[in-house]
Design goal:
The chain is an alpha+beta fold. It has four domains: 8-159, P-loop containing nucleotide triphosphate hydrolases (Rossmann fold); 170-270, Translation factors (Elongation Factor Tu (Ef-tu), domain 3), CATH 2.40.30.10; 273-385, Rossmann fold, CATH 3.40.50.10050; 389-494, Elongation Factor Tu (Ef-tu), domain 3. Helices cover 26% and strands 38% of the residues. It is built from ten helices and 27 strands. The strands form six sheets. A six-stranded antiparallel β-barrel has the order 7-8-13-11-10-14. A hairpin with a 3-residue loop joins β7 (170-179) and β8. α7 runs parallel beside α10. It is globular.
């Protein structure tokens, strides 16, 4: 982590390339925001999230994904605002910092100045009698990087990091996305226990049984241990970034936990959005939650406005129709009524007569004295305003063993159900993870008898009618043995929450 343009990406790129060169192809893997580096028979899992989303999303869940922060600071630029932010956040969660002083080859480089600035912020270098390891490096050439990596292992050894292997797994959702032909997938980091294939897991209101699992080496695996990341599928939806996940003993337990989460969120949402129908407006497809902001000081106001801008994304945002300093007055309530918006107050007072007036005029007023509580409430509101999207959830899979009739549109097939319970309905035709087209199962037989459903492990006959071609130039699909019939259902859910990284 560190300030913009101080060399974070360049350093990570060098480490990746260096590790590949030393351990050959497959020694390092990156998938979006998490990857594994093997160095001298030891492993480092890097979590690389733009900006500071990794801190912001997980601090609210009472957890943090990192055992160590590499703070990158440019020797020719020194301490900057994001440098200070990283140090503050690390102190809050008691996460050790290793400082990588980058760009020491620049003519303007001043290593000693950077050390002095960091010391003033509580990071005193070891050579000055402090406890912070500082590694001078040149990320573009790799100078000093090997020594820095050795320091990472030293800090790890001194911390004596421990986790239990033989307990149900817990961890953090690093990222979630939809993959064509697979459905919802999540990049996860296991923090305790061992996550196994076929485990039932729950994260927020999302549940599932793990169907596939890919480790940090990009190979299929059956288990992920603490400290390692991986990609899993089989979830009912897209769990939110930064949320914790838990492995449980059964699907019933997972669903009960998810229902309890939904109940709690519903109560919070109702409490937070009493007058949501008059406090929002839509502009060019984007929904805004409109507020009047009243604060105790200009500094408070600017800090809140800056933080609210970071909550905005392509779908939703907060529109501040007015911002002022001082207590809420009658004019504010009149303005809120005319503008159809809510009033947010920070560290200010609201008299009883004004409370009664606000109730009579149906104006929502929320008062806060802690900025994080204010931001969490508005984030909850914005999440509730996210658009609904449709996703495909795989519910059964059949491997084709024989083709009995192969007409242009209707085809009679035989196969083995490999997972789930197959019924009449919509299916995809897949070949080696490539979508060939879509169809409808119009008949099912088990032996010579008609069947309403066929469970996993059973052979059956089925008739399908082609409804869509992936290649629009074709007017039929030539199905072959070993192709897959994947049954799915369309589920509606709120679009996953994300914030712009600025």
């Amino acid at each position: 982590m560190g300030h913009v343009d101080h060399g974070k990406t360049t350093l990570l790129d060098y480490i990746r390339k260096s590790a590949i060169a030393k351990s050959e192809a497959g020694g390092i893997t990156q998938h979006l925001s998490s990857y594994l580096v093997k160095i001298k028979d030891r492993d480092i899992t890097f979590i690389d999230t733009p900006g500071h989303a990794a801190f912001e999303a997980t601090r609210k869940q009472g957890a943090f994904v990192a055992d160590l922060i590499i703070l990158v600071i440019a020797a020719d630029d020194g301490v900057k605002p994001q440098t200070i932010e990283v140090i503050s956040l690390a102190n809050e969660k008691n996460i050790p910092i290793l400082v990588a002083i980058n760009k020491i080859d620049k003519p303007e480089a001043d290593i000693e100045k950077a050390k002095r600035q960091l010391s003033e912020l509580g990071l005193s270098p070891e050579e000055w009698g402090g406890k912070t390891i500082m590694s001078p490096i040149v990320a573009t050439t790799g100078e000093g990087v090997d020594k820095m990596l050795e320091m990472i292992f030293l800090i790890s050894d001194l911390k004596e990091l421990k986790a239990s292997l033989n307990v149900p797994a817990t961890g953090i959702i690093i990222e979630s996305h939809m993959t064509p032909g697979v459905g919802p997938q999540s990049t996860i980091l296991v923090q305790n226990g061992t996550l196994n294939i076929s485990d039932f897991i729950v994260s927020g209101d999302t549940v599932g049984k793990i169907r596939t699992m890919t480790g940090g080496d990009q190979k299929k695996t059956t288990a992920i241990k603490p400290g390692y990341s991986g990609i899993i599928s089989g979830l009912s939806g897209l769990p939110e970034f930064g949320h914790q996940f838990f492995a449980v003993d059964s699907e019933k337990s997972a669903k009960n936990i998810a229902k309890d989460f939904q109940r709690k969120m519903s109560v919070k949402t109702i409490r937070s959005i009493k007058e949501q129908n008059i406090s929002t407006e839509k502009e060019q497809g984007k929904v805004y939650y409109k507020i009047i902001l009243k604060s105790d000081t200009e500094a408070s106001s600017q800090a809140i406005i800056s933080s609210l801008q970071k909550l905005e994304n392509e779908d939703v945002g907060v529109k501040i129709v007015s911002s002022d300093i001082g207590d809420i007055n009658e004019s504010d309530i009149s303005y809120a009524k005319a503008a159809k918006c809510s009033i947010i107050g920070f560290n200010i007072n609201l008299g009883n007569e004004l409370k009664k007036l606000a109730r009579r005029e149906s104006i929502e007023i929320d008062l806060y004295s802690v900025i994080y509580e204010l931001l969490e409430s508005l984030e909850l509101i914005l999440k509730s305003l996210m658009p609904v999207i449709k996703i495909e959830i795989e519910i059964a899979e059949l491997k084709i063993l024989a083709i009995f009739r192969d007409n242009k549109k209707n085809k009679v097939l035989g196969g083995m159900v490999r997972s789930g319970t197959l019924t009449k309905g919509s299916v995809k035709i897949m070949r080696e993870a490539k979508l060939l087209g879509k169809a409808e199962i119009i008949a099912l037989k088990k032996g010579k008898q008609d069947a309403k459903q066929v469970v996993s492990g059973s052979e059956c006959g089925l008739e399908i009618r082609i409804t869509e071609f992936e290649d629009t130039k074709l007017d039929t699909i030539e199905i072959k043995p070993s192709d897959l019939i994947v049954q799915y259902e369309i589920k509606e859910q709120k679009k996953p929450w994300n914030i712009n990284q600025k």
